[in-house]
């Protein structure tokens, strides 16, 4: 009787079966210069996905920041240190993003208007204030959004 053979996965099959092992295997192949063994199709897909994830994280942090700036400006009676902390934290995240990926700064400028619209709706939902309470266009400039000392009056 023949002993059972272990299941052998090609690198592309490994991607579907054990993602973490695929990452380790791919990194090892690249470090060792075994480029012909690399699962290029899935590696390219993952690199592109990483870029999209960076953009999504930037947008998410910007929406939270803008929403809290709106709440701070339009609900003065409810201002809290928690809101200030959230504003500071999301500015810190954006600064770190730009430090690690300076090429995302133009994208920040590009998505600011749409992120503001999302923040405006979310601020309305969270505060119970009418959407009309908040200006249609952002009252905050890109520089004000990133200025760690700026808080709206």
Overview of the molecule:
The chain is an all-alpha fold. It has a domain at 56-146. Helices cover 67% and strands 0% of the residues. It is built from 6 helices and no strands. It has helices at 11-17, 19-31, 40-74, 81-100, 105-127, 142-146. Helix 1 runs antiparallel to helix 2. The termini are far apart.
Give a brief outline of the structure:
This protein has 153 residues and is mainly α.
List strands and helices in order, with pairings.
Layout (H helix, E strand, L loop, with lengths): L10 H7 L1 H13 L8 H35 L6 H20 L4 H23 L14 H5 L7
Number of helices: 6
Largest sheet: none
Cα end-to-end separation: 82 Å
Helix/sheet category: mainly alpha
Over all CA atoms, what is the radius of gyration?
23 Å
Total strand segments: 0
The whole-number mean of residue pLDDT values reads: 93
Can you tag this structure with a few keywords?
153 residues; mainly alpha; 6 helices
């Amino acid at each position: 009787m023949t002993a059972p053979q272990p299941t052998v996965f090609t690198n592309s099959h490994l991607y579907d079966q054990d993602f973490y092992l695929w990452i380790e295997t791919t990194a090892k192949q690249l470090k060792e210069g075994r480029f012909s063994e690399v699962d290029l199709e899935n590696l390219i897909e993952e690199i592109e996905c990483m870029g999209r994830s960076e953009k999504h994280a930037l947008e998410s942090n910007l929406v939270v920041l803008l929403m809290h700036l709106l709440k701070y400006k339009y609900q003065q009676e409810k201002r809290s240190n928690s809101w200030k902390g959230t504003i500071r934290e999301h500015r810190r995240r954006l600064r770190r993003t730009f430090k690690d990926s300076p090429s995302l700064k133009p994208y920040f400028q590009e998505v600011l208007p749409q992120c503001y619209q999302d923040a405006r709706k979310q601020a309305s939902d969270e505060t119970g204030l009418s959407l009309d309470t908040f200006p249609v266009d952002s009252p905050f400039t890109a520089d004000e959004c990133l200025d760690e000392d700026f808080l709206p009056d």
